[in-house]
Amino acid sequence: MGRFHRHDDGTEHSHEHGDDAAHEHGDHSGYTTGSQRIEVLEAIFSENDIRAEVNRKSFDDNGIRALNLMSSPGSGKTTILAATLDELAGDLAVGVVEGDIATDLDAAKLGGRGAQISLLNTNNGFGGECHLDAPMVNRALAGLDLPALDLVIVENVGNLVCPAEFDVGEHAKAMVYSVTEGEDKPLKYPVMFRSVDLVLINKIDLVPHLDADVDTYIDHVRQVNQTATILAVSARTGEGMGAWFDWVRAFASAR
Amino acid sequence: MHELSLCRAIAGVVKPHAAGRRVEVVRVQVGALRQVVPESLSFCWSLVRDHEDMPEAELELEFITAEVSCRGCGRQSPIASRFSVCCPQCDSADVAVVRGEEFLVTSVDVT
Fold it and tell me: Per-residue confidence of chain A (255 residues) as pLDDT tens digits?
């Protein structure tokens, strides 16, 4: 396991030590005896980012706009998506990449609404990936007839941490944040809230039953993200959904 | 889960540079705004390195303090809070992140 120490310049280090490690902390010359140091300076996500660019080029070549839709589990992503597909049917040709650790339950909910669905189960890694990455989405795109589409929505795995780190080749990121999750989530998961272009605050029909104040939710999103569009909606009652549909139409036509 | 994925990505970056040589140390720079738990990353590395044919490779993490440049007051400052990127001088949320999002392999030692 790693150990930590602080250098004079204020940086902190952690490294693993064998049982017989005897070198001084702060003096790293002991490591290099007989070994060669190779400068790498390579972003850890570089491979994913290269593959994401390939996906983005496929979208661009086919005149498609792509949206990466993220959220925690149970926020209402799939319900919002179902309503969105119903709204856009006959208007825009939509493809959905449906990411789930296991089961085809969500893909079944989205079927029969005029959209092409490509299901991507992620349970073939170390017990199931918690996010979609660019190579996975690339495989799923083979299940869509890209030349026929205007818009691709990638429904990511429900998770507020990992999906924010992986570019899948989208042109914008949106997230669903339901009032039942609590007003503190933007502060606890700032990487995701900071990464998105739009936040849908969902389940506002439940506000009368909760100690929830939508303005506080909005304030907390603003603390980490100044520029995102924030829309309060209820996928259940349809309240506020018109503004979301308008946003999707404007996004899809911005190619 | 997350750190396991990250460790596999780290190994993916290291391997081509190692080109079959024995990897002794992998140095990784992590910005404070990355959601990386150091203890978890170190633990996951101890699992992943065996699978990736670098069982002796030690993971050395260097943390980078986050800094923001404030459009409100024009100052650049390190942020202390882990929960907000607001300007510590004037509390404005209208800031640009200058440092703290790094996540890269800086160097490796091989024999």
Answer: 344 444 445 455 555 444 444 444 444 555 546 889 999 999 998 889 999 999 999 999 999 999 999 999 999 999 999 999 999 999 999 999 998 877 788 888 899 999 999 988 777 654 567 788 899 999 999 999 999 999 999 999 889 988 888 899 999 999 999 999 999 999 888 889 999 999 999 999 999 999 899 999 999 999 889 899 999 999 999 999 999 999 999 999 996
Hey, which bits of A48-159 come out as E strands? Answer: 65-71, 94-100, 116-121, 151-155
DSSP element (H, E) containing A81 = helix A77-88
Tell me, yes or no, if B35 comes closer than 8 A to chain A by beta carbon. Answer: yes
The DSSP string of A100-125 is ESS-SHHHHHHTTSS-EEEEEE-TTS
pTM above 0.90, yes or no: no
CA dist A247 → A33, A93, A254, B34 (Å)? 59, 16, 11, 29
Q: Which domains does chain A have, with CATH numbers?
A: 49-252 (3.40.50.300)
- Tell me which residue has tokens 């996928």: A235
Instruction: Specify which residues A36 forms β-bridges with.
Output: B110
Which residues of chain A does B109 touch, with a Cβ-Cβ cutoff of 8 Å?
A: 31-32, 35-38
N-term to C-term CA, chain B: 31
> Is residue A179 within 8 Å of A201, Cβ to Cβ?
yes
Residues of B in contact with A44 (CB under 8 A): 6, 9-10, 13, 28, 103-105
Q: What is the ipTM of this complex?
A: 0.84
- Tell me the three state secondary structure of residue A97: strand
Q: Which domains does chain B have, with CATH numbers?
A: 2-110 (3.30.2320.80)
Nearest to A41 among B58, B60, B104 (CB): B104
A104 strand-pairing partners: none
Cβ atoms of A99 and A78 closer than 8 Å = no
